Amino acid sequence: MLVGIAGPTCSGKTTLLRELRQRLGAKVAILSFDEYDLYPSGSPALKEALKNGSIANWENPSLFDYERYLKDLQKLREGKSVTLLTRSRESQSEGSDRKTVQPDRYTLVEGVFAFSDPRTVVLFDRRFYVDIPVDEMIRRRLDRTPKDSADPWDSPQYIEIDMVAGTEYYVKPQRAKADVVLDGLQSPAELASRVIEEIKK
What we know:
This protein is 40% helix and 16% strand.
């Protein structure tokens, strides 16, 4: 079963995945949409974008390799494994430059834009959207931001204005595409219980 989990930044998607992995155990495979980032940390593309200021809003699906993502989703749905370059911060912190995802009973795909493209929507057996109020999203994002960061996406002005605008325009429309909308203010255990209940129907 291919399961999509989308939602705004800091809505609790990653924490939910950890809870699901713990409770579903060996039955689960996980793919992060962040692995398709076209501007991963430390890359020449990111350095060039920061140098010339070509990206005004970082909450934009065009900053990701959707064509590769679409092909990989199709393979996973067919029961085939996919190997991809590691571009998410989590994968890069593990020190590996490639990772292979082998589909399992439950293949969970998580990301801010997990089903933003209409072509991907039909590939998922179940789609979940984790929703949180704007003020809570801002609070969590500010709390998570390194105090000494000079990155433009970490500035309070960007977070409170541009990030919110990008979320409203690009991210929230996925809410209408979800089979189930989850309340991101609930605990990870509560959210995981709801997801498990739905995928086992």
